[in-house]
From TrEMBL:
Residues 171-217 form the S1-like domain. It comes from the Bacteria. It comes from Echinicola arenosa. Keywords: Initiation factor, Membrane, Protein biosynthesis, Transmembrane, Transmembrane helix. This is S1-like domain-containing protein. PROSITE patterns: S1_IF1_TYPE.
Length: 263
């Protein structure tokens, strides 16, 4: 391998070596891969002497007077430090808000706060749809989400159950509930009393012909793990930032020393 081939490598180069020509061309033309991955695929095609339409970015020019122009003053370092601390603080607060205002209302719901809605089935079906999310490096992750939705005769509400199923094409539990709903005579849906006027209330329990097909405790505790994880991340992140900014106050708290008296 010559000197040029040694230079034409990055993090993705080794991953491109076992791929076929068609896979490499697909990576270059796809929007789901970052620029570094496309560049590594193009290098591999060049080694195989296969034509492609990828345009390599122009190399960045490094100025010789870099050290003269760059200001290495301590205040720059402190500025970057504060910037990252602010981002970490925002992340921690976002975790706490998500845990307290989104997940906690479900976990801390009690059976006495629910009301029942009785009726006969009007319609019931399951929708499987693809969802995607993109990370910081631009890679797009795709999965599938299952939604069981149904309505009752004379009740102006749409009841929904939703869950991510990864790469599966079927949700067995939702399929079983849909079958029970379609073969039912009487359906009871339990929702919060405060959501009686909402068109899409949160469903906490479903009874079909006096038999429970969706249990209250399952709905209440399904996100307990995420709730605890978000609390740990939230308190850990915000606590770390506050400790970095006010180390003296934290030391007094942990050592049991009273606050200084200014009088």
């Amino acid at each position: 391998m010559n000197e040029k081939e040694n230079m034409e490598q990055n993090y993705f180069s080794k991953k491109m070596t076992p791929k076929s020509d068609s896979e490499l061309i697909e990576i270059i033309s796809s929007d789901s891969f970052v620029a570094e991955a496309k560049q590594a695929a193009a290098w591999e095609l060049d080694k195989r002497k296969i034509e492609h339409d990828y345009k390599f970015p122009e190399p960045k020019q490094i100025r010789n007077d870099f050290e003269k122009d760059y200001d290495f003053k301590p205040k720059e370092s402190k500025g970057w430090k504060k910037y990252h601390e602010n981002r970490l603080l925002f992340f921690g607060l976002a975790c706490l808000v998500s845990a307290i205002y989104i997940i906690a209302p479900t976990i801390f719901t009690f059976k006495t706060s629910l009301t029942r809605i009785d009726g006969s089935l009007q319609s019931a079906d399951i929708l499987i749809e693809e969802v995607s999310s993109r990370n910081r490096v631009g890679y797009e992750a795709k999965s599938r989400r299952a939604t069981l939705y149904f309505s009752l005769i004379g009740i102006n509400k749409r009841f929904e159950l939703m869950e991510n199923i990864g790469q599966d094409y079927r949700h067995e539990k939702f399929s079983s509930i849909k079958k029970r709903l379609r073969n039912s005579q009487q359906i009871t849906v339990w929702i919060k009393k405060g959501e009686k006027e909402i068109s899409k209330p949160k469903v906490f329990q479903i009874d079909v012909d006096s038999k429970t097909v969706l249990k209250f405790n399952e709905v209440k505790t399904e996100h307990t793990g995420i709730f605890a994880f978000l609390l740990i991340l939230g308190f850990g992140s915000t606590g770390f930032v506050l400790w970095r900014r006010y180390p003296d106050k934290f030391e007094r708290i942990f050592n049991g020393k009273p606050a200084a008296n200014n009088n």
